[in-house]
Amino acid sequence: MARPRRFRAAEAVAALLLLVLSAACGSRLPESDFEGGGRTTPSAAAEPIRVGIITSATSPVGGDAFTGPRDGAKAYFERLNARGGVDGRPVEVRLCDDGGSGVGNNECVHRLIDEDKVVALVATTALDYAGASLVSRARVPDIGGQPIGAAYDTWPHLYGIYGSLAPREGTVGWDGELYGGTEVYRYFKREHGARTAAVVSYNQAASAAYARLVERGLKAEGYEVITEQVDFALPNFRAVAADLKEQGADLVFDAIDSHGNARLCAAMDDAGVELTAKVTNVQNWTSTVADDYKDAPRCRNALWATGSSRNFEDAGHPAVREFRDATEGLKTHSQWQLEGWAAARWFTEAARACAGEGVTRACVDGWMSRSQGYTADGLLLPVRFEQLPEPPTTRRACLSVARWEDGRGWVSQGDMDHTCFDVPQLAYTP
């Protein structure tokens, strides 16, 4: 079943914009196929299958904010090639850093599509995906990209990592609006009895707009909502923390950057604020929490993350274990790395299906358009592309939930395939 998870994608969008300001069942690829099924390592004479990865690696956001999906995808392709490639053909990865600008993104699209002749783009993570229309017009499948903007709900031939229900005919969503569910808020209300939620934002347009979106979702689920706004240049987080303690907030959501979150957490620790959860998003679901929140041990251990993919710490799951084994040399791990790995796996499955007739753009794109309910062997909630003529009013939506615990890292809270709710879908303008 389709599960639009746009609110969670919007969380990442808001966080990234603010950082710039501050500086089912699906087809599966079994392990036996991954290991090559007895194939030999690709020889130098084997014609490679060329793919491109566009990443805003040197954007104003910072050197590592966008690189997780790229690193996960690279790790998958390296292991794939070591174990035989696709029918003996290695996958050749061409990287392009667009610098976080629209001009740079268009240059990357031109280079990879027109000059390097890539079969597909994989795990795109672009701050400004200005070249999306060019990718679509060239009919190059873009597989498993991060929906930082609205491109994956606008253009055909683009297949975002979370799927899309929108028509994707060249205009955003339905008449310029996208829709998202309230499953995150429903989860904390049903599972943890939360009734009062605070939303912290800056006095800045993008931050305030996202805070209003969260507030709407919370109110739709019956929460009492506390709104807290701080000055962007000189935020007084101590005052916010004191008010949160006085009003007895159960949950804290935010529309502020990572540095601001760390300062907010430290202020809440100093004020003795006790929370059910300080809720963050998939972009901040990383192994660096202990360092990022080193001055806020109480708040740190109240951090919860929600998303649409299986916890990268859940090594008891075989598909997660494959990912962790292949990336054990990386300094840090993150949920975005796991999603990049899943995107590369998705492309590989399409390429295997096309190997007989030829791994072409058209064949891979045709396979992708039919890959309904894809899960990357359980790494993703089932992904669909339905192109509904009218927006949904309600949907059954599932979510992955994890909580940070010192000494254990991110600990999964239930199984994402069964943490599901029938929730309303609320319109918003991206």
From TrEMBL:
Domain Leucine-binding protein: 48-386
SUPFAM superfamilies tied to this protein: Periplasmic binding protein-like I
Gene3D superfamilies hit by this protein: 3.40.50.2300
Signal peptide range: 1-26
Organism this protein belongs to: Streptomyces davaonensis (strain DSM 101723 / JCM 4913 / KCC S-0913 / 768)
Protein name (Swiss-Prot/TrEMBL): Leucine-binding protein domain-containing protein
InterPro entries recorded: Leu-bd, Peripla_BP_I
Family according to the record: Belongs to the leucine-binding protein family.
PANTHER family for the chain: BLR6548 PROTEIN (PTHR47235)
Keywords: Signal
